[in-house]
Amino acid sequence: MAIVVFVAAIYIVRLFMMQVVDSSNKEFADSNAFLKQTIYPSRGLIYDRNGKLVVSNQPVYDIMMVMREMVDFDTLQFCQVLDITKEEFDERMLSIKDRRKNPGYSRYTPQVFMSHLSTEDYGRLQETLFRFPGVFIQQKVMREYQVEHGALALGSIGEVSQKQMDADPYYRRGDYRGQSGIETMYEELLRGEKGYEILLRDVHGKIKGHYLDGALDRLPVSGKDLTIGLDIEIQQYAEELMQGKMGSIVAIEPSTGEILTLVSAPTYSPSLLVGRDRSKNYAKLLKDPHKPLFDRPMMAMYPPGSTFKTVQALVMQQEGIINENTAYPCNKGYYYGGSHKLGCHAHSSPLDLPQSIANSCNAYYCWALKALLDNNTKKYGSTGNAYDAWFNDVCSFGFNSKLGVDYPNEKAGSIPSRKFYDRYYGANHWRSSTIISISIGQGEILCTPIQIANLAAIIANKGYYYVPHILKSVEGDVIDEKYTTKHHTAIDARYFDVVHEGMLGAVTGGTARIGLIDSIQFCGKTGTAQNPHGKDHSIFMAFAPKDNPKIAIAVYVENAGFGATWAVPIASLIIEKYLKREIPEKRKWLEERILNGNLIGEE
Fold it and tell me: Which domains does the chain possess?
């Protein structure tokens, strides 16, 4: 009886495994009678802020194989039709059957043999398809770019990885999804929903039509169209200005936080990462010594240089250290610690607050930092407490943390905390002279270009900002409310007018006067970021017009020297192009100089 019970138990377990757990028999039976073909949806289109189509779709074809149906398969003829060698055919088949590379392999389900079939190959194969049992063609959509600009911002799509398939059951081997830029950030909106059709086979495996006349078929649902904040005409112009240079440009609409321009230079054509050559082209871009795949606007961290003086001017006013009439001396620099000097360029002295911004005086902000940290212990109790107040005010501008841009790879930058200096120098063993370089945006302070562009937007708005974002609107939907919510700094609005005055003075008669534009009053601040690896970086941030600003911009040109040399003209030309849509004849000389400038070749 024990033996009988044991054998019966084995049979029961085995039947349970075969009928319930193991689906291979069901797959075998279903594949004999049916062929379930996926119908891929059209991916959502992308338009720029002016309604110009930027990214559309084009049909592509994949060759699919069901291995168990490939009986009496004429391999040589198949290779001739596709113009491939027998060795290449065998290599592809081995790759498909290798469960380490293709964990979802099954003889009963369609497998991708070749992707991105050309129109010519598709035509030849379609004519002879009946000769190759188990082979059919799967139509998909691939991106088609209407412009050759904005590659990093727009992003690209590519075949899903095993990790992506594991994370989302929507995807199967051979599917495509957004891999970078807004294509990946808004993948779920853009991809749509797959459909399918169930086809009926006869005993010979030939398709006889739709099962139940298509009653169980499901039509695909197209992805949603997106409108982005980029002005693609200005994007193109900005990329042309940055040809032959390394750096970045970020422009924001202050009243909404929408990103108008996002340039990382050098750049590349988005069409390079489409089709069969995607992997090959990606590898070339990856090896390029100038790093065109490096997302400089979001990832590059530089000292903000003198652009940070605007933040200091606002914080020092908020903390009661200075006002618009406060003046400090400058004798070509600031002397501290006996024999040490932080240099400054020649200008009149002493300067008041707006003049210190217009002329970018280093000494002014050294004196202000000393007044806050060393001479204000009655209010704060200690240098450390005073520094904490400064740190909190500065971080309210969005520094030292990610802004939350709807774009991958964003870095937080760095504003050193009190604990950082306590660890390095010891508690109560440091003063303003120890960290004097932070007064002018150097030393341990690091910011990304998107943060500096956002700073320009904050000053334009007199104290608040919207999280910078690329998405402007979604077809039939609304954008996330986090992009329509105001974020206020710790600085009272009344302190911004004097900074506006100083930044206007920088353009009309100060360090940025080369950028002066007829009929447009705009405010700007130059900067020069120290670079331990070579020539300093040229920086400029601005907003325009002064009243009712429409654009805030930050320009970084690496290894280019003073801000006024390269960054100011580039920003000025973009501002004029955006607001007027053209560059007047009298400024064509400046445009030509920038367009023809090749700093990479001069390295």
Answer: 31-228 (3.90.1310.10), 232-270+295-596 (3.40.710.10)
